[in-house]
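Structure request: Ni/Fe hydrogenase, Minwuia thermotolerans.
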Amino acid sequence: MIRILSTAFALCLLAAAPALAHEGGGAGGGLVSGFLHPILGWDHVAAMVAVGLWGAFLGQPAIWQLPVVFPLVMVFGGILGIAGVPVPQVETGIAASALILGVLIALAAKPPLWMAWIVVGLFAIFHGHAHGTELPEATSAVTYSIGFVVGTGLMHLVGIGFGLLARWPEGRIAVRAGGGVIALAGLGFLTGTL
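Returned structure:
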């Protein structure tokens, strides 16, 4: 069963392409558009799943703290985007988030919790900025924001669910392999943004 889940997870990430959800004309607005934004962008999906996966891999209290830190700091990045404050290399930062988080999972990195908060928070700024730059174009900024926070949360939950396999030796291998797949996808996203 673990091999089937790992294979399915790997195939989904390998089939991913860089998100175009925050390029061009922007989202149409509203709850559904906000919800779909993080889910339709494979670079966002990889990073959001990685946050939940790493939190689960690190165990308590990271399993719930990292998926809380990310959206809180993402709001700050979103405010920067709405205010028009430039953040350099947003697309590169988003792509790097999948690469680096994937590597941390693959290497079974267990830094102090405060360091994990900083890593996750730093990447949340890039993801939030991408969302925030589209908020002014949305029909309803409030419902759009609720949508993308819920979509982000669901991706974190997917990562947590997969990460819970790390409770067993075979599952730990599958989780680390999943991190490797996320890192490879991140590398692909990164080379597409440079």
